[in-house]
Amino acid sequence: MQILDGKALALEIQQTIKQEVQELSKQQITPGLAVILVGDDPASQSYVNMKAKACSQTGIYSTTHKMPESITEEALLQTISMMNENPNIDGILVQLPLPKHINTTAILEAISPKKDVDGFHPFNMGRVFTNLDGFIPATPMGVITLLEHYKIPIEGKNVVIVGASNIVGKPLGALFLNKNATITLCHIYTQNLANHTKNADIICVGVGKPNLITQDMVKEGAIVVDIGITRLENGKIVGDVDYDNVAPKCSYITPVPGGVGPMTIASLLQNTIKAAKLRVKKETK
Prior knowledge:
Number of strands: 11
Distance between the termini: 51 Å
Radius of gyration: 19 Å
Shape: globular
Strand order of the largest sheet: 1-11-8-7-5-6
Strand content: 15-25%
Largest sheet: 6 strands, parallel
Order of helices and strands: EHEHEHEHHHEHEHEEEEHEH
Structural class: alpha/beta
Helix content: 40-55%
């Protein structure tokens, strides 16, 4: 069994990003990322802090707009419009989830597709599903980057994805399909989940339910990518896989923490650099 060390790979990627930032600075360009944080959710606050720290370490300019839980949808849309027009901001990220009184779809659609470094705009989603260049959602992008780094074959493999969200499961399925894997996308209404996972060469799970994937649900030599993250009452952070019992059966497995999480942030930074390079192209035309 080999651990898929996302933390180590993310640090490598950050070093490359640091060099790219230095190259861009020669053209008087500093990549800029704007993050919108609504409310006081501790998990969201923690994620935003980690993103800001990663930006600081690589030389990317970042700014966080903290807004009260009670902010109106109109005010939020006005802030996004202002960022869309700001030539120094390359990437705009709205930390999810948003309060219930705000239409999340309307907010995500308001972000310029050229600054949509989270890859959640329908324009970029469409390009992912049709295998065209665009901004790929950070978590799915991080999963594929991690597998490719370890030279894990994807073509022709049976891949089971547990969790069919718009921001992880569906785009991840598209990325695997683009690489000629056979995919099964499971969700809360899937009956007898184990019937699907037992035959999988690669299992990706991200639903936020500790110990969902148990030893008897995984075949010998499978590759398991745990995207889930839950903080237990005792403070321990765990994924969706019963790691201690599943790991011995796997050829590769991601730890939680230290697997997909750092790769998500690294991918977000890569998208921000990509957006900055698009700005360079636009300004040199």
